[in-house]
Amino acid sequence: MILSSEQIQLYKKNGYIIIDNFFDQKELTNFKDAVIKIIHLSLVKASKDHHIKINPNDLVGKELHEGITALEQVDHKFISDIYDTICFTPQFLRITSKDEISQCINQLTGHDLDSPTYIDQSKCRIDQPLDPYKIKVPWHQETVYYVPGSDFVQTWAPLIVDATVANGTIEICPGSHGEIAKQSYHEGEDDYYKYVVDDDVIKKYNPISVEMKLGQLLIFNSTLIHRSGNNQSNQTRYSLVGINHNISNENFIPPRFIVKNRDEIMNDYYNSLHLSDKDN
After folding, report:
1. Is 218 exposed, middle or buried (0-12, 13-18, 19+ CB in 10 A)?
2. Which terminus of the chain faces fewer neighbouring Cβ atoms within 10 Å, N or C?
């Protein structure tokens, strides 16, 4: 995919661009069907607990909204498991790993068209109406949450329904990518985003809610100030959030997963597999 000089200049000026018709109907439909099946399986799993009053048959065709809401009302763990499952399905990976994403990013950042990028933290956000956990990401710049000097670009897109103000689409501060903004540190054990951009900084810009149609892709600079909106609709919003790193950057380090108490977990699991041996 080749971008126009106008698109590249807009990105440099505003810190973001929106590309129309980036994802095709087949990609989005395949993804939607996969999510429906994942939620249905979770409903079936929940229904096997006699303490939980859920009938999966009553929610056929309603999985994406009523179904996932029913699971939230039972136990948020079901939502967490769905969230962690979706991002590793072939249907999602085919969306987030499209060559055209890297091609566009390379053109916007001045690298060779086919230079490989490292895909990091590509997820499908699940934002439910009036989320009981109120997981709203505050105004922030992603760059402060990575290895100092990291060079990456972010992506965002609606995946199942259009992104609107009503369902809490992403909000950005156009042109704010030219500086590392003044930020306040927020202490809190459960707060991932501890550095929050100060209100007086936000006032310098004209924040906008980026309403998007299915198929569109938002690409934005890692220093662009942004946050998630509030979903005040009656539908769950599913959206792509992605990060592509420039691996030629001298500060690039591939993230590594660290499992806490790995040896203990492995030892307990091994012993559990050989209980019959010990009994003999």
Report:
1. buried
2. C
Joined together, the tokens standing for residue 63 give 């999985």
Residue 147 identity:
V
Q: Are strands 195-197 and 217-221 parallel, antiparallel or unpaired?
A: unpaired
Alpha-carbon distance of 173 to 139, in angstroms, equals 9
Calculate the CA dihedral of residues 128, 133, 134, 138 and round it to 10 degrees. Answer: -110
Taking the CA atoms of 155, 72, 87 and 163 in sequence, report the sign of the dihedral they define: negative
Question: Which pLDDT tens digit goes with each residue over 197-256?
Answer: 998 999 999 999 999 999 999 999 999 999 989 999 999 999 999 999 999 998 888 876
What is d(CA 151, CA 225) in angstroms, rounded to the nearest whole number? 16
Nearest to 159 by CA among 65, 40, 64, 31: 31
Which are the contacts of 275, defined by CB distance < 8 A and separation ≥ 6?
none
Q: Phi then psi for 242, rounded to 5 degrees?
A: -140, 160
| Pairwise CA distance, residues 57 & 78, whole Å | 18
CA distance 243 to 227: 15
Helix (H) or strand (E) holding 9: helix 5-14
Q: Do 227 and 140 meet the contact criterion of CB atoms below 8 Å apart?
A: yes
For residue 146, the tally of other CB atoms under 10 A from its CB is: 18
- How many whole angstroms separate alpha carbon 114 and alpha carbon 134? 40
| Cβ neighbours of residue 38 closer than 8 Å, sequence gap 6 or more | 82, 85, 86, 89
